[in-house]
């Protein structure tokens, strides 16, 4: 009998997991949420469970009890959480395990540990990973803060232990302002959170975000699949990723990869995982955190290594031995992922909702499209703004940049604005071409006028004129359509031939 | 006559699109050929056309244009995913507006007067025609020499004050042109 795999997720990742389930001879089961009853992923599933979550406060994807109850009702063997939603919720993973459902991911205990930043960091220290220099606990007063900052070097960041939302937080550039800043931040924290305790940490002004993909099995084997660079972020969320990173030399890759494996082994990790590092301008790097789920940007790693990460997640969950060895992993070329989000890059990436009248993706053998929508789909305010991903593979970095740019010029979407023009601008910017971009790029370098170009502006003027002209001459409505000869004739001629 | 005419003869096909950053595009849409933008003919082709969505092909690239909003003569067009805002004028609305805020001197500047006494032997253009700077408008014969009188600006011929065969004095007004060079 075929195993039944339930996907507790939606959109492109649901379709991605269905593909792996089918490849491994399983039945793919999905939920149909009332919040998007016509979603594209439903078409690919073998079985659909109606979630009837219309009147529930939370959608089905955020409701652990209902998911598990429905899974039991439908005789589910394995559950894949995808990313986001409950994918890194240890209580949910535990609930699955307790009910005899094979949760695809690491053990619930490890999900919990990695979710607690302080626990994760102390485990990383034990495994010998470098951390951003900082005080282990709260510093006692302004003088102690100054003494500590003088030791680790400026700039430093002062953070309230109880802080959040930027309150009780100060970036201090030089020694003579630290005592004043410490006092004001501490007072602010005391007023806001009733606790004036302050931490101090080295502040990286222009850091890069690097992450290592690892894969482990339940028999103690762990390999790494190289790094991804995800420095391009807006609102602290990734928007474009590449693999490998131009800032990582083969020696560093070996060193950091070995570190990632050592860490994973020391905590008994299995399934897919990501170890995040932050890298300073001088090339020094520090452990940030570990993600215990499959990540949005996993395809870039798959493109350059040829390893199917979702397949292995499932196989590892079933107890299979990881047959891919570290020496089998060769980095082949370069890959870039573009996230197509329905956001307006001309207006601070504000989300856009509504109809996708028409969408067209480029088709090439080196382009992989992962999409959760199609022409005619609706983008609702209930879920994430990411609708598709365009992943491009090239022989080297220069080649993949050009191929991606061409692909984005071929891509079109009628109805909503997307992040694609933003990614186009990035691909042509010297900071990206030279690979010097950092996580601060969007805030410190990007301006919306970078999205514009003269050719587009001129063609826009022409399009505006044609629309205006056809109305001006009051002929547009009563003329036949020109679809048949639209290819080679300057169509407007007929409109204006009065 | 040897002049390559950039603007053709029909002023009703000339439009001005001004972007919100002040950039101006003079767009002429001829009957049989490619559009002329700011005096230059471009090999731009329609690939696809639906109600408010056009796709053009130019320089081997695709340009997807979508009407986002339209208010009177203002339009926002999304080109390859990025919005641009234009205000649009037909040449006549521009002239009408130009006459409302008329600067009398400015119109005078573009009047063409006879540089010498003589006889009008030929008139090439008619009122309402578009002219380019340097384009011949009429021929004035003086002292057995034929002199081509040319336009001193790009614009529309508003009035032709003389007829073929008529004799004119020096400094007599021949033609009034409404300039579209701003």
What does this structure look like?
The complex is a heterodimer of chains A (498) and B (182). In chain A, strands 13-12-9-10-11-14-21-19 form an 8-stranded antiparallel beta sheet. In chain A, strands 3-2-1-4-5 form a 5-stranded parallel beta sheet. Chain A is α+β, with helices and mostly antiparallel strands and 498 residues long. Chain A has helices spanning 11-23, 64-73, 90-98, 108-115, 117-126, 142-152, 178-193, 250-266, 298-305, 309-317, 397-410, 420-427, 430-433, 441-444, 454-472, 492-496, and strands at 4-7, 27-32, 47-50, 78-80, 102-103, 156-164, 167-172, 198-202, 208-216, 222-234, 237-243, 271-279, 285-291, 334-341, 343-344, 350-351, 354-355, 358-360, 367-371, 378-379, 386-394, 412-414. In chain A, 33% of the residues lie in helices and 24% in strands. In chain A, helix 3 (90-98) packs antiparallel against helix 4 (108-115) and helix 6 (142-152) crosses helix 7 (178-193). Chain B is mainly β and 182 residues long. Chain B has helices spanning 91-100, 104-109, and strands at 14-19, 24-28, 36-37, 40-41, 45-50, 53-58, 61-71, 74-79, 82-90, 111-113, 118-123, 130-131, 136-142, 145-150, 155-160, 167-168, 173-179. The longest helix of chain B is centred in the middle third of the chain and has 10 residues, at 91-100. Residues 1-8 of chain B have low confidence and may be disordered. The chains are: A alpha+beta (498), B mainly beta (182). Chains A and B meet through strand 22, helix 12, helix 15 and helix 16 of A and strand 1, strand 5, strand 6, strand 7 and strand 8 of B.
Structural class of chain A: alpha+beta
Strand content of chain A: 15-25%
Estimated radius of gyration of chain B: 20 Å
How large is the count of helical segments of chain B?
2
Largest sheet of chain A: 8 strands, antiparallel
CATH fold category name of the largest domain in chain A: D-amino Acid Aminotransferase, Chain A, domain 1
C-alpha geometry of chain A: globular
The low-pLDDT segments of chain B are 1-8
The radius of gyration computed from the alpha-carbon positions of chain A, rounded to a whole number of angstroms, is 25 Å
In spatial order, strands of the major sheet of chain B run 4-3-2-1-9-8-7-6-5
Tally of separate helices of chain A: 16
Main sheet specs of chain B: 9 strands, antiparallel
Mean pLDDT of chain A equals 91
């Amino acid at each position: 009998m075929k195993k039944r795999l339930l996907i507790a997720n939606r959109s492109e990742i649901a379709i991605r997991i269905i593909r792996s389930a089918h490849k491994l001879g399983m039945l793919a089961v999905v939920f149909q949420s009332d919040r998007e009853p016509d979603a594209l992923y439903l078409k690919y599933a073998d079985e659909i469970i109606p979630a009837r979550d219309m009147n529930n406060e939370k959608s089905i994807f955020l409701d652990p009890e209902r998911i598990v109850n429905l899974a039991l009702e439908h005789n589910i063997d394995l559950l894949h959480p995808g990313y986001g939603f409950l994918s890194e919720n240890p209580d949910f993973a535990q609930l699955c395990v307790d009910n005899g459902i094979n949760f695809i991911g690491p053990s619930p205990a490890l999900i919990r540990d990695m979710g607690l930043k302080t626990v994760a960091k102390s485990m990383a220290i034990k495994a010998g990973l470098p951390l951003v220099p900082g005080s282990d606990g709260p510093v006692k007063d302004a003088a102690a803060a100054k003494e500590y900052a003088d030791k680790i070097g400026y700039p430093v960041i002062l953070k309230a232990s109880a802080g959040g939302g930027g309150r009780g937080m100060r970036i201090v550039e030089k020694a003579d302002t630290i005592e004043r800043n410490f006092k004001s931040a501490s007072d602010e924290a005391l007023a806001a959170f009733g606790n004036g305790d302050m931490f101090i940490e080295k502040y990286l002004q222009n850091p890069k975000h690097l992450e290592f993909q690892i894969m482990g099995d339940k028999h103690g084997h762990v390999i790494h699949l190289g790094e991804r660079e995800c420095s391009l972020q807006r609102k602290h969320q990734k928007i474009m990723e590449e693999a490998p990173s131009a800032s990582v030399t083969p020696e560093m890759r070996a060193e950091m990869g070995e570190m990632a494996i050592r860490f994973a082994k020391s905590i008994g990790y299995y399934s897919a995982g990501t170890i995040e590092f932050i890298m300073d301008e001088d090339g020094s790097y520090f452990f940030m955190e570990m993600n215990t789920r499959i990540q949005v940007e996993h395809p870039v790693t798959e493109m350059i290594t040829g390893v199917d990460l979702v397949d292995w997640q499932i196989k590892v969950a079933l107890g299979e031995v990881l047959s891919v060895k570290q020496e089998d992993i060769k980095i082949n070329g370069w890959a870039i992922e573009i996230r197509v989000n329905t956001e307006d890059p001309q207006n601070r990436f504000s989300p856009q909702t509504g109809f996708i009248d028409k969408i067209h993706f480029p088709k090439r053998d080196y382009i992989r499209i992962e999409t959760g929508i199609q022409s005619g789909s609706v983008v609702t305010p209930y879920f994430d703004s990411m609708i598709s991903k365009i992943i491009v593979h090239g022989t080297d970095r220069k080649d993949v940049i050009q191929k991606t740019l061409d692909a984005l010029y071929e891509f079109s979407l009628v109805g909503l604005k997307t992040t694609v023009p933003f990614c186009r601008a990035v691909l042509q910017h010297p900071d990206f071409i030279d690979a010097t971009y950092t996580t601060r790029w969007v805030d410190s370098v990007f301006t919306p006028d970078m999205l514009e170009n003269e050719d587009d502006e001129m063609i826009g003027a022409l399009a505006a004129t044609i629309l205006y002209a056809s109305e001006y001459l009051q002929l547009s409505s009563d003329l036949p359509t020109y679809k048949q000869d639209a290819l080679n004739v300057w169509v407007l001629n007929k409109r204006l031939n009065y | 006559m040897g002049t390559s005419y950039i603007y053709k003869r029909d002023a009703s096909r000339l439009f001005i699109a001004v972007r919100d950053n002040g950039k101006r595009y003079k767009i002429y849409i001829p009957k049989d050929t490619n559009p002329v933008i700011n005096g230059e003919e471009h090999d731009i082709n329609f690939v696809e056309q639906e109600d408010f969505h056009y796709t053009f092909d130019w320089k081997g690239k695709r340009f997807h244009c979508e009407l986002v909003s339209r208010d009177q003569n203002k339009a926002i067009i999304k080109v390859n995913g990025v919005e641009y805002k234009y205000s649009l004028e037909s040449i006549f609305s521009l002239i009408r507006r130009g006459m409302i805020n008329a600067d009398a001197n400015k119109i005078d500047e573009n009047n063409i007067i006879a540089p010498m006494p003589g006889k009008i032997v030929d008139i090439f253009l008619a009122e309402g025609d578009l002219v380019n700077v340097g384009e011949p408008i009429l021929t004035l014969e003086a002292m057995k020499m034929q002199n081509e009188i040319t336009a001193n600006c790009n614009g529309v011929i508003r009035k032709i004050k003389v007829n073929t065969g008529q004799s004119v004095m020096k400094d007599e007004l021949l033609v009034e042109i409404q300039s579209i060079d701003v």
